[in-house]
């Protein structure tokens, strides 16, 4: 039987240590909220990794998520009717997978208008979208890829409160779900809003954000996404499919 090399041994030892921490975390959260028993180890692991293996911080984060979820999704799902105004803006789409099999979501920032936004429905819509994306994940995947298209973005689209609300939901309720996000067609004006939002983005999320120059757009996207899975508006083969379909 071949012996393991140093790198393989380190990986196995790391997985074993993480498994122990997951078990410890489970004991903590189940003691405080018995409904936590319904969460599988993969879910707890995502929260543990989001807090850099700190059991106490990860447990607090998960318990806060449990409370949030009971309030945000009391029926276990969010219906189209509950987010119909947001869906009508046609700003979030989902179709295709990247080369590793992660589903792809496309968000059009230029279709979001501050004047049309009602915060509670917006938060429900963000949650609705993330729930649908996560439900589409293949069994062996925990993360998705996103394309944030800011073509046409201007002052009427700028909505810092909404951006921070969406970021809070993504980071604190769906940790370690985002694999990578491409920021494309980014106007100079947007960078003013970005400077306000950036300090609220945690380091794990920052590492997943890629700004793409227009001249490198198709080339960059094709590194991660096969042409057959790339949306047709970016030179690929797939038509856009609304998140509400």
Task: Please describe the topology of this protein.
Elements: H1 6-32, H2 41-50, H3 55-72, H4 84-87, E1 92-97, E2 103-108, H5 119-135, E3 144-149, H6 160-173, E4 178-184, H7 190-197, H8 203-206, E5 209-211, H9 217-224
Helix pairs in contact: 1-2, 1-3, 2-3, 5-6
Can you walk through the features of this model?
This protein has 245 residues and is of the alpha/beta class. It is 45% helix and 11% strand. The chain has a five-stranded mixed sheet with strand order 1-2-3-4-5, covered by helices on one side. Helix 1 (6-32) crosses helix 3 and helix 5 packs parallel to helix 6 (160-173). The longest helix has 27 residues, at 6-32. The N and C termini lie far apart (52 Å).
Which keywords apply here?
single chain; 245 residues; alpha/beta; five-stranded mixed beta sheet; 9 helices; 5 strands; 45% helix
Brief sketch in words of this structure:
This protein is an alpha/beta fold and 245 residues long. Helix content is 45%, strand content 11%.
Q: What's the helix-strand series?
A: HHHHEEHEHEHHEH
**Gyration radius, to the nearest Å?**
19 Å
Number of helices, where a helix is a run of at least 4 consecutive DSSP H or I residues:
9
Oligomer: single chain
Largest sheet: 5 strands, mixed
> Averaging pLDDT over every residue, what do you get?
93
Strand content: 5-15%
Strand order of the main beta sheet, please? 1-2-3-4-5
Which residues form runs of ≥5 with pLDDT under 50? 6-13
The end-to-end span amounts to: 52 Å
Helix content: 40-55%
Strands, total number: 5
Structural class: alpha/beta
Broad shape: globular
């Amino acid at each position: 039987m071949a012996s393991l090399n140093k790198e393989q041994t380190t990986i196995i030892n790391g997985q074993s240590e993480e498994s122990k921490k997951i078990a410890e975390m489970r004991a903590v959260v189940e003691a405080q909220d018995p409904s936590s028993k319904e969460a599988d180890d993969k879910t707890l692991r995502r929260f543990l990794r989001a807090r850099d293996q700190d059991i106490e911080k990860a447990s607090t984060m998960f318990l806060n998520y449990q409370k949030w979820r009971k309030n945000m999704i009391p029926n276990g799902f969010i219906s189209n009717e509950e987010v119909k105004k947001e869906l009508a803006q046609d700003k979030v789409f989902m179709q295709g997978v990247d080369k590793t099999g992660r589903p792809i979501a496309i968000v059009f920032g230029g279709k979001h208008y501050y004047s049309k936004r009602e915060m509670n429905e917006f938060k429900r819509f963000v949650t609705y979208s993330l729930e649908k994306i996560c439900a589409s994940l293949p069994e062996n995947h925990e993360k998705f890829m996103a394309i944030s298209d800011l073509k046409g973005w201007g002052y009427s689209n700028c909505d810092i409160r909404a951006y921070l609300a969406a970021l809070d939901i993504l980071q604190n309720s769906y940790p370690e779900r985002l694999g990578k996000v491409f920021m494309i067609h980014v106007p100079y004006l947007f960078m003013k809003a970005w400077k306000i939002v950036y300090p609220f983005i945690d380091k794990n999320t920052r590492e997943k954000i890629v700004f793409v120059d227009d001249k490198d757009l198709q080339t960059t996207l094709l590194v991660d996404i096969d042409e057959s899975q790339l949306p047709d508006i970016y030179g690929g083969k797939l038509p856009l499919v609304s998140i509400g379909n």
